[in-house]
Specification:
The protein has 408 residues and is of the alpha+beta class. It folds into two domains: 24-141 and 294-361, 3-Layer(aba) Sandwich (D-Maltodextrin-Binding Protein, domain 2), CATH 3.40.190.10; 144-292 and 364-407, D-Maltodextrin-Binding Protein, domain 2, CATH 3.40.190.10. The chain is built from 17 helices and 14 strands. The strands form four sheets. Strands 1, 2, 3, 4, 7, 13 and 14 form a seven-stranded mixed β-sheet that branches. Helix 2 (37-53) packs antiparallel against helix 13 and helix 16 runs antiparallel to helix 17 (391-407). The longest helix is centred in the N-terminal third of the chain and has 17 residues, at 37-53.
């Protein structure tokens, strides 16, 4: 009996030590895509500081692996009428979840938000759908052009800014063995992977788009034919194909130039062997300066009962202080124009990364974006493997295949 009384007393003391929420306190669930340690450290900082500034609001945080995991979880929660109050998700989710009613529009808050005219237009576009703002971008993934400074200098070559310059430089820096096999790539390009956006970099850098004016899919067009013809003429002579799920040959010292995103850049940044040897630039283009840029955004879920409190959290996470702190902790480009100079001061590379965000375009915000990804990936694989001899015909087939996928 004594032991039971002691245990009961200890339990009471433990419960008393846990601060209880006030009767009028708000508890908000927040589910975010991704589970990397740096992101977790950042969101721990945001939540701690937000709750200190807003003692009546408690954030219950959850993170889910990238890919099917988060969508499966969200589908189950929304089906049960218990979707998260706040959701951190990517571009591919926008059209689908808006049409399902899972995301609430935030126009009323956005119009009076102090950062309304400060957020980069390219970033704001990612969370805008059918004329309404649903999400605000907190994390961007621009694709930049990475090159070996030392190798270009040794060869007396300049950093290529156009497709023609890229082809000339890549061929000059490629090395082959006696059998003609490429042992060192002048410019490496992936042949497989989850989302082969590297083709999109060339399409966007030639003024192309995958969406027609009426919102229908547009896989055909001269700008895409030119991109494929260019890659077709170059890659066989300079490329060591690789999978996006593997380490980029550039990071392994086997390539002079490539396209890289934030995640791939980290391994290069942290490698002392590359100190002073790697430079970044906006990807070479033909008619328009552009690149691919992914984006994760904050949304208010359909089942959120206190939209005002949820917006308070988003507003705090998107503030200048939080945005700059994110760049420090996660090494991610800022999404607010007023912070670009501060971001550039952190690292010489950041000027290019910020510019790539500003000129970047993400995945199509459409109901057919996942089908597009599949068809575009198949097209890229065929190009890299040398199976495309007629770009126009390959794009017509891609258009037909995509329409077939859409129609079910």
């Amino acid at each position: 009996m004594k032991k039971m009384l002691c245990l009961a007393l200890a339990l009471c003391l433990a419960l008393a030590a846990v601060p209880a929420l006030a009767d009028d306190a708000v508890e908000l669930s927040f589910t975010r895509i991704g589970s990397d340690p740096a992101e977790r450290a950042y969101w721990d900082w945001v939540i701690e500081n937000f709750e200190t500034a807003n003692p009546g609001i408690k954030i219950v945080y959850d993170e889910v692996e990238i890919g099917d995991s988060i969508d499966n979880k969200l589908n189950v929660q929304f089906a049960a009428g218990d979707g998260p109050d706040i959701i951190g998700h990517g571009i591919l989710s926008v059209a689908q979840r808006v049409e399902l009613g899972h995301y609430q529009p935030i126009d009323e808050y956005f119009e009076t938000w102090e950062g309304k005219d400060d957020i980069m237009p390219s970033v704001l576009a990612n969370g805008t759908y059918n004329g309404h703002v649903y999400g605000l971008g907190y994390s961007t993934t621009p694709y930049v052009f990475a090159y070996r400074i030392d190798l270009l200098e040794e060869a007396g070559l300049s950093v290529p800014a156009t497709w023609d310059e890229l082809a000339e430089t890549a061929r000059a820096l490629t090395q082959k063995d006696d059998n003609g096999e490429i042992t060192f790539s002048g410019f490496c390009f992936p042949s497989t992977g989850g989302n082969l956006v590297e083709l999109d970099v060339f399409v966007y850098g030639n003024g192309g788009s995958y969406i027609a004016e009426d919102g229908s899919p547009l896989m055909t067009g001269a700008e895409k034919e030119e991109a494929i013809d260019f890659l077709n003429s170059l890659l066989p002579d300079v490329n060591i194909p690789y999978s996006n799920s593997e380490t980029n040959p550039f990071a392994k010292g086997l390539a002079a130039m490539t396209l890289m995103n934030n995640a791939a850049l980290t391994s290069v940044i942290n490698n002392p062997d590359y100190e002073g040897k790697v430079g970044l630039a906006v990807p070479p283009s033909k008619s328009t300066v552009g690149t691919f840029c992914g984006c994760n955004m904050l949304f208010i879920g359909r089942d959120c009962a206190d939209k005002d409190a949820a917006w308070k959290f988003i507003e705090f996470a998107m503030s200048q202080e939080s945005t700059l702190k994110r760049s420090e902790i996660v090494n991610i480009p800022v999404t607010r124009q007023s912070l670009v100079e501060d971001y550039q001061a952190m690292d010489p590379w950041n000027a290019v990364r910020a510019e790539c965000v500003a000129v970047g375009t993400g995945m199509p915000r459409t109901l057919w974006s996942t089908q597009f990804q599949k068809i575009r990936n198949e097209l890229v694989q065929n190009v890299v493997l040398g199976n495309v001899t007629d770009a126009a015909a390959a794009l017509e087939k891609a258009q037909d295949d995509l329409l077939f996928e859409i129609d079910g």
